[in-house]
Each structure stands twice: as C-alpha cells, then as structure tokens.
Design a protein that fits this description.
Elements lengths: L2 E7 L3 H14 L1 H4 L4 E7 L4 H10 L4 E5 L6 H11 L4 E5 L3 E3 L13 E3 L2 E2 L6 E2 L2 E6 L2 E5 L2 E2 L9 E2 L7 E5 L19 H8 L4 E3 L5 E3 L11 H15 L4 H7 L1 H11 L3
Parallel strand pairs: 1-2, 1-4, 2-3, 6-14
Antiparallel strand pairs: 4-13, 5-15, 7-8, 8-11, 9-10, 12-14
Helix pairs in contact: 5-6, 6-8, 7-8
C-alpha cells in the first residue's frame, strides 16, 4: 500500500466524520483501488466512532483505539506505528484537503508540508518562520494568492503540524516523553534537518485547518513548556529562548511539576 492518511483525534467525532467523508468524496480516485487507506487513531476511546466507521468505512477506513498515553504527539507517533502505507500523511481531524492534494504523492524520507489556505479561501501560507509568539515557536510567513502560489517544491524552515507527511520506514518520531497538547512546533523540523533530511513545501498539498473551535484536549501550559524543554534538550538546542518567552517561573514550575528534564 502506497499511502496512509492518518487522523489522530480526541473526543471530536463530528470533526472526524467531516474530514473522513471529505477525503472519500473529494479524493475518491486515490482510495478506489484500496492502494491508500484512512487511519483514525482515537486517543480518547469513543466506542460509537469505532462502531460507526467499522460499518460505514467502505473497507478503506480503520479506527484504532490508543488511550494508554494521552497527547497529540503520542497519537501521531501511533499513526506511524499502525500505518500500512509506505508514505504517511498525518493530518488533524479538522483539516480538509484540496482536490488533487493526494495525486502522485511521492514516497520520501524528507518531511513534507503544503500551503495552508485560510478560511477566506483566498490567502495561502506556505511556511512558518522561526520566531516565538503566543505559546508557540514559529509564526506564519507571508501570504500568497492562488495566482502567485509557487508551483515547484521548495525548502522551508517549518510549518504547522496540522498537516505533514514522510515515509513510515524513515519516521524519526516525536520524543516519547512528550505529554499533553503543544510543544511540537519547530521541534520536528529541526529533528529532520539534524538527521540530514529536508523540510519541504509541496505546493499541491493544499490544506485548510479549522481554527475557530473548542480544543477537546485538556490544555495545560506546563505540558507545552515541558515538551519544548524535552525537545530542545534532545536536539541539543539552547533552552534560553524558552525561558525568555514563557518566563522563569512557568519554566521552573514545569520542571518542578514534572521533575528534572
């Protein structure tokens, strides 16, 4: 099997339903010969969702429960563990893909992203820039119109983690110590670069992310800080910017709550 489209999710059946059905409606040619699959990794434990897709998945949708460790990065790691495709496209369970986004998808050990189209359906953003803002390492770069959107793949610093792809066999993974929600941004891009891989924007992989939503995962800022600290230590990066951005007390609280990092 060439491609797995993996959706990690947590207590949001309606979003999953629309994302899965959009994949089946708008990318039917990719799935028609069962050379691709849709894999849902349920990090919450929704019996109804598993029963629904077992009966209505058309033989191309799998729903697997994974509730041992709660957290977005842990669920994404599980997507790659359970995937059957040579290439894995991991998308948030509230992401829609533009028709054509899955055609002629390459199998590569590089980290692949694509342009995110905003809710206005007019502005496209191809990459993140390495700056701290809000609670994240990385900010959206400049916008493009459809007319001036690049047509050939090009190298980028990073992108949002709502849509990314790489080979299953070459998956480098999120740190297994990550917990909860957040702290993934920038980390995976740096990990791939340090391994000699490339971080690329594939212009045809256009995706739309639902931002105006209630996040179902429990939100704990200290989880996010802790994940950044762990990731920076793993990659040999200076943790000073984390302290400067979040403040000495929150960083100390994260270390105290979770032990020495």
């Amino acid at each position: 099997m060439k491609l797995t489209v993996g959706l990690p999710c947590y207590n949001n059946f309606t979003e999953v339903w629309f994302t899965v059905q959009s994949l089946r409606l708008h990318h039917a040619d990719v799935f028609k010969d069962k050379n691709a699959e849709i894999l849902i990794v349920d990090n919450f434990g929704d019996d109804f969702m598993q029963k629904f897709f077992l009966g209505h998945g058309g033989g191309i949708v799998r729903c697997e429960k994974y509730t041992e460790i709660k957290g977005t990065s842990n669920a994404k790691n599980k997507v790659f563990e359970l995937a059957r495709g040579d290439m894995v496209l991991c998308i948030d369970s509230h992401v829609l893909l533009k028709p054509g986004a899955l055609e002629d998808f390459p199998v590569t050990d590089d980290l692949i992203h694509g342009p995110m189209v905003h809710a206005d359906n007019l502005n496209y953003c191809c990459e993140w820039l390495p700056e701290w803002r809000g609670q994240m390492w990385g900010i959206w770069g400049k916008n493009y119109s459809l007319e001036n959107l690049p047509t050939e793949p090009f190298e980028i610093w990073g992108n949002g983690m709502g849509c990314f792809a790489t080979s299953r066999a070459g998956w480098l993974g999120f740190n297994g110590k990550f917990r909860g929600f957040g702290g993934e941004e920038g980390y995976l891009s740096e990990k791939y670069r340090k391994a000699g891989r490339h971080v690329m924007c594939r212009p045809s992989l256009v995706w739309m992310h639902m931002f105006d939503r209630k996040i179902p995962y429990p939100l704990n800022l200290l989880d996010r800080i802790r994940n950044y600290l762990i990731g920076f230590e793993e990659l040999g990066l200076d943790s000073g910017p984390i302290v400067q951005h979040f403040g000495e007390k929150p960083v100390a609280d994260a270390r105290k709550l979770y032990g020495t990092i």
